[in-house]
Write a structure and sequence with these properties.
single chain, alpha+beta, Lambda Exonuclease, Chain A, two-stranded antiparallel sheet, 11 helices, 18% strand
């Protein structure tokens, strides 16, 4: 199928293509990822909605986004029609972000929400670039974070920078590969971000090619198994720890403790 903004998140697209977000879901729990895929389950978490709002405020059509998400708006009193106070930190973050000439220069010269497809290990992969400077062949991703503190990484069993723990380096590594397949080697790959703290912080990060190479290898190592699970060739493994696994847990024997 030919992907565009309208069908990018559709069931058909998610079944035909692997994406970074889908890959990360499989990594967390294969059983839950397959359940979500088969039942078109899309959990719109508060943080996801806040991230979309932030992107609309800094690089998109904020008025259109608010029209599409009336749940963002107050319906009572003097604030009727305005964004609810619970999203004030996102607005503050966007204002701090927009004050940066460096960030505005990037946004102004870039195309927004560019859908691309490619293949990795013979498997179809899709991605949507937040910002793409087609003339310079450069990729930029936008994030709105709670803060920039190190986060516990359960795979590494250590505190690591937020951009590793949340898989954003992996994301940029895959984006780089898909852009490379479509347009050649990207010139610049950047992550630009602001925080939802009382006083918002900002960061602009780029990543060494060797770091992106390592993350892409991780993607390549696991994508074939996840693709086989999607196709019913292999059975998904339950993590036993997530809400889905606990909800569907069945006990049929004692587990011996030694």
């Amino acid at each position: 199928m030919n992907l565009n903004l309208d069908n990018y998140y559709s069931v058909e697209a998610n079944k035909e293509y692997m994406s970074v977000s889908q890959f990360k879901n499989f990594k967390l729990c294969e059983a839950k990822a397959m359940y979500d895929l088969e039942n078109d389950f899309q959990e719109e978490k508060q943080s996801f909605l806040e991230g979309q709002l932030f992107e609309a405020l800094v690089s998109g059509d904020a008025n259109l986004f608010k029209a599409q998400h009336p749940e963002l708006l107050s319906t009572r009193g003097a604030t009727a029609g305005q964004i609810k106070s619970e999203f004030k930190k996102v607005i503050n973050a966007s204002e701090k972000f927009n004050d940066q000439v460096f960030f505005r220069d990037i946004i102004d010269r870039c195309e927004k929400q560019i859908v691309l497809t490619g293949e990795i290990k013979g498997i179809k992969v899709k991605c949507m670039l937040d910002l793409f400077d087609k003339k310079a062949n450069s990729i930029y991703d936008i994030k709105c974070m709670k803060d920039f503190k190190e986060q516990w990484n359960k795979d590494e069993k250590a505190y690591m920078p937020w951009y590793y723990t949340y898989g954003y380096v992996l994301q940029l590594a895959v984006y780089r590969e898909i852009v490379r397949q479509n347009f050649g080697e990207p010139k610049e790959i950047g992550l630009i971000a602001a925080t939802k703290e009382e006083i918002p912080d900002i960061q602009a990060l780029s990543f060494d090619s060797s770091l992106l190479d390592l993350e892409l290898e991780q993607f390549k190592n696991d994508i074939e198994r996840y693709d086989k699970i999607k196709k019913g060739i292999e059975e998904p493994v339950a993590c036993t720890l997530c809400s889905y696994c606990k909800e569907h847990k069945v006990i049929d024997s004692f587990k011996e403790v030694k």
